[in-house]
Amino acid sequence: MSVAAEAAKPAPARRFPGPLAGALAYMAAAALAMLAAVFLPFDDYILHILVETATYAIAVFGLTVVLGLCGQINLAQAAFFGLGAYAVGLGTADLHLSFWLALAGGAGIALVMGACLGMSTLRLGGHYLAMVTISFQQILTLVMINWIAVTHGPDGVGNIARPAWFSSGHGYLGLCIAALALVGYLVWRLPETKLGRSMRAVRDNELAASVSGIDVYRIKVAAFALCALLGGIGGGLFAGGFSYVSPDQFSFAESIVFLTMALLGGVASPIGALIGTALLIVLPETLRFLKSVPGLYLAIYGLAVILIIRFMPDGIWGFVQVYLRRFMKPAAFARSAPELVLVPAKLEAESALEVEGLSKHFGGLKAVDSVSFSVRRGSVHALIGPNGSGKTTTLNVLSGLYTPTAGKIALDGHDVTALPPHARTAVGLGRTFQNIRLFRSMSALDNVVIGAERPGHDLGRIHAALVDQARAALAFVGLEGRARDPITSFSYGHQRLIEIARALAGNPTLLLLDEPAAGLNSTEKVELRGLLKRIAGEGLTILIIDHDMALVSDVAEHITVLNFGRRIADGVAGEVLRNPDVIAAYLGAEPDVAHRA
Amino acid sequence: MDLVLQLLFTGIGIGAVYALVALGFVLIFRATNVVNFAQGEFSMVAAFIMVVFAVDLGWPYWLSFIVSLGGMALLGALFNLGVYYPLRNRSFLPVIIATIGASIFLANSVLALYGPQPQVLQGWFDTPGIQLGPVYLDSQYLLIIAVTIVLVAFQYWFFEHTLLGKKLQATSQDKEMASLIGIPVSAMIMLTFVYSALLGGIAGILVAPVLFVSIQMGATIALKAFAATIIGGFGDVAGAIIGGLALGVIETFGAAYISVPYKDGFAFLVLVAFLIFRPQGLFGERVAEKA
Amino acid sequence: MSLIALETLTVRYGEIEAVHGISLAVEAGEVVTLLGANGAGKSTTLRAISGLAKPASGDILFDGRSIAGLGPEAIVKLGIAHVPEGRRVFPGLTARENIMLGAANRGRLARRVLSDETDGMFDLFSDIRPFADALGWTLSGGQQQMVAVARGLMAKPRLLLLDEPSLGLAPVIVQKVFSIIAEIRRRGTTVLLVEQNARMALSVADRGYVLETGRLALSGKPEELWRNDDVRNAYLGGKAAKAV
Predict the structure, then answer these.
(1) Which chains touch A (3 or more CB pairs under 8 A)?
(2) CB contact under 8 A, C84 and B181
């Protein structure tokens, strides 16, 4: 290993916004809020409103995770809230369990229910999830009302106990605020963890997430279960706060209230969730006269949802953030980026990729018809062919987006034919897309960090190592200076480079490039050519698909040509391009222009 | 055996209502790729308009019916202009959240205007029904089944045998291509919303004498209709009808033999069972991937 | 006056500037082909003419009148029919219904007129007559292409835009498609043809333009273009062209 490789090794954690200082400031603020809760002379009315706000906000944090981070909908948060509340209510009042045990039980039930619901639905589209969560909500309400023997039916549950140390109103508020602060901190930090990044990646682009090695389904289920868990915790604390719960507090209407709170404040951040929750609890209290007309509040909420979605999709906090960002420039990196080292991970097979008799049929159409080729380790191999010749289908079969009708694919000696895309990434496949697929709400750096932390690419658990690797990859494509800029601020050509950097950061065994020259202007194409040669110079194996013959003939050593789904030529670049069949496939033969009518 | 026949009749009657609302779901889904979560509220609003005119104001039933359908056409158009159209280029999540918002808005606006008491709407006929052998045929259920048959036949004729129907189909299959051959795509989508609102409205007016007219009826019907579309295969017209009928029958038998309070829960169980074991529904996707 | 004239047309496609200030003209009665490798901006040019893409700058004159910025529904009513890449046959409608809908731009037509004209299309495209009642998605690529061209002709266009009619078709079928283009030309419809298959395109065209990364590289008679090395460069890349 070279000196540069040493530089890429995990250095002592040194991250930009000074997380330790941030955390300390946060803890201090939380402690202050708790002291205020305990010692300020609030009357019972204010205490109630504050407990309600704190416990609701915990549940709304759940929506921040599932909807804001992961882009999945949950219209049953009140049901999970209710599960927690009923667990504490029935547990302490009827079963005489300790408050803590009942709270943990409620949270656990909510978590399990959330996971089951998510597992049954999250493979399907979002419509299903919306409808299934509504159904679940309705069912739970039915059960609360009708299973009178256990739930006491419409009468609800009274005499709910509080834990001994927090039995006073002030003490209990302190407990709620402590819980709020703790959960809020975790949710606030979540986007910067691997799990949180994966969720954001899934929300931004599921396909790109899966080829970056993220198990999309598992992440969605995790987000959904986490949301349910927070709903359960919030509900459990809510029950202790009010000592009485009834089914109407956990109806579908309340789920909509939770949703409105999240959307109004800003669904992307726990700060937004807190703002939205506080507003929608305090506003109705101050405008009590509106409550005299049943339905009016919810009608306004419904209208608010439509208007927020249309005019303020990022909510209040999103709106404020736009202004804050103008004054807050991200801090510079403490040291320059290390050099990127691309090490072919294993040396198990002579061929990085071995394709045998690969076929993909769509009904009667043979898009790919028993194609075989092999990509030698360390070489640049091109797969070309006229439009509609089956290149893109081949590529989608190679990366696992389609299952082949027949044939075998071996990556670095491993049979990956039956593996899903994220598992192929773990074996060492990296790819880019013809129509660039980046995580558009993130910075260039975050995009590439996701590439760097692909499964099978072990950089240890230290965040700094990941950031170093990502910066190195960005530096390799010449964009490290703008690492913190949001993706949308980059030109099309630069976005293409970032996508390549994302794949490079995972140190793949084989890099699949799907028409990297598409949409680039002539200058950018020249730059791309240089970049590809440098990547090849590092010894990385590349399979490139492109129409740009100037590019292909310049960088590829080996070419496979497809036409009508079949391989029509395969061999050393110069010879293949002189092959008359190949020329005819691209240009047609000499035209008989003279005989034209 | 007599009870079975009787339940079958009732189940098909209720199922026909679900089928009508499900048809509205499917039409909008095919035209816009969005599930309209406010579809059930169309039924609820139409039923309340009927109550206002036929009961409160004492207008003739047929005139109230026409007024109600006029109101639904207007509501469908406003819904398109106010909720779907401004968001048509956004991803599907904002659009479905907006339709959920619209659903809440409609249900609670009616609640605020009319109060929470469920209302009673008389059926179209004065005769309560006829006894046919062991089965008692309620006149309103007969009407529901008859109207559903007529509407399904009309829809079949309209989509399969008129040029306008073909244009609507073309729009739902490929909007860009439809616009390229000169089909006014926005107008077609508008028409789809108006037609779906009318379907939902008719379903609501038909079912109102059987159930109570209540604020919750929209959400309940929408849930059943959605389950019906999943049972039948998402986006499939025939599937929506068969799914609706099947659900009505399952629910009626479930209520009779298992539990009345949990009647509304059966739809959910059937829904989840299909999601897990046969997410493509009974009939799968009719139009395969484009070759 | 040219039937259609592009004046320093620039089109952005999302973030990509796909066409940079190209100018070209097609006279009434001509078949003109637009050649170039993938991504050269050919399809985008057609999309701009038919209103699917909005020009960022420059102008498009149809019959001397600016149509830049009009929507596709308005443009097809003026008499420009676009047969897009990938055929885009409505999958759930039959071949006959697909073709019939091609006349949607011509306002209300008597049912008989419409069905007579549709039958007329099956005379021109006799190969697809047996499949008149087959659903679009069940047709083969070649059959779909014929349905798509017939649908375009039903608009009675003065200008027909054809985008890659040979895409993914077997050579025999390609021959057939091009003989139909020759027939369309004989009947007096002006055609702007985008093709990757340079040989076939040049064999039916009166003139050709070559696009390279969104810019007009050269133009001329088919014979001149075929002999020109730059055309080969555009398709096969520098090295290969020299090697040939």
Answers:
(1) B, C
(2) no
Q: How far apart are CA C153 and CA C176, in angstroms?
A: 16
Chain B residues inside the 8 Å CB shell of A313: 94
DSSP chain C: --SEEEEEEEEEETTEEEEEEEEEEE-TT-EEEEE--TTSSHHHHHHHHHTSS-EEEEEEEETTEE-TT--HHHHHHHTEEEE-TT----TTSBHHHHHHHGGGGG----HHHHHHHHHHHHHHTGGGGGGTTSBGGGS-HHHHHHHHHHHHHTT--SEEEEE-TTTT--HHHHHHHHHHHHHHHHTT-EEEEE-S-HHHHHHH-SEEEEEETTEEEEEE-HHHHHH-HHHHHHHH-HHHHHH-
Under 8 Å between Cβ of A280 and A264:
yes
DSSP symbol at A157:
B
Give me the residue from A387, A518, A589 closest to C164, CB to CB: A387
Taking the C-alpha atoms of residue A249 and residue A251, their distance in angstroms, rounded to an integer, is 6
Q: Inter-chain contact A577–C14, Cβ cutoff 8 Å?
A: no
**C20 occurs within a structural domain:** no
What CATH number is attached to the domain comprising C181? 3.40.50.300
Side-chain-facing half-sphere of A70: CA atoms under 13 Å? 32
The rounded distance, in Å, linking the Cα atoms of A230 and A84 is 9
Cβ-defined contact of C73 to B169 (cutoff 8 Å): no
pLDDT tens-digit profile, chain A (597 residues): 343 433 333 344 444 445 677 788 888 888 888 888 888 888 888 899 999 999 999 999 999 999 999 999 999 999 999 999 999 999 999 999 999 999 999 999 999 999 999 998 887 767 788 888 888 898 899 899 988 888 998 899 988 988 888 888 888 999 999 999 999 999 999 998 999 999 999 999 999 999 999 999 999 999 999 999 999 999 999 999 998 999 999 998 899 889 989 999 998 889 999 999 998 888 877 777 777 788 888 888 889 889 988 888 888 888 888 888 777 666 667 777 777 777 655 556 778 899 999 999 887 778 899 999 999 988 999 998 877 788 888 988 999 988 899 999 999 888 999 999 999 999 999 999 988 899 998 999 999 999 998 888 877 667 888 888 999 999 999 998 899 888 988 888 899 999 999 999 999 999 999 989 877 777 888 889 999 999 988 889 999 998 777 788 889 999 999 988 889 989 998 888 888 888 777 766 544 443 343
DSSP bridge partners of B138: B129
Tens digits of per-residue pLDDT, A1-38?
Answer: 343 433 333 344 444 445 677 788 888 888 888 888 88
Which residues are registered as beta bridge partners of A511? A430, A542
Structure tokens at B78: 């406003």
pLDDT single digits (tens) A262-316: 999 998 889 999 999 998 888 877 777 777 788 888 888 889 889 988 888 888 8
Distance, in Å, from the CA atom of C166 to the CA atom of C86, rounded to the nearest integer, reads: 10
Q: Is residue C127 part of a domain?
A: yes
Q: pTM of the prediction?
A: 0.84
Q: Give the domain range for residue C43.
A: 27-54+70-243
Interface contact B183-C73, CB threshold 8 A: yes
Q: Is B58 on the interface with C (CB under 8 A)?
A: no
Q: Which member of A386, A522, A564 has the closest CB to residue C213?
A: A522
Cβ–Cβ below 8 Å for B98 and A306: yes
Cβ contact, residue pair C72, B179, below 8 Å: yes
Interface of C with B in 1-60 (CB under 8 A): 50, 52
C64: in domain = no
Q: Which chains reach chain B with 3 or more Cβ–Cβ distances below 8 angstroms?
A: A, C
Closest to A574 measured CA to CA, from A551, A553, A548, A550: A553
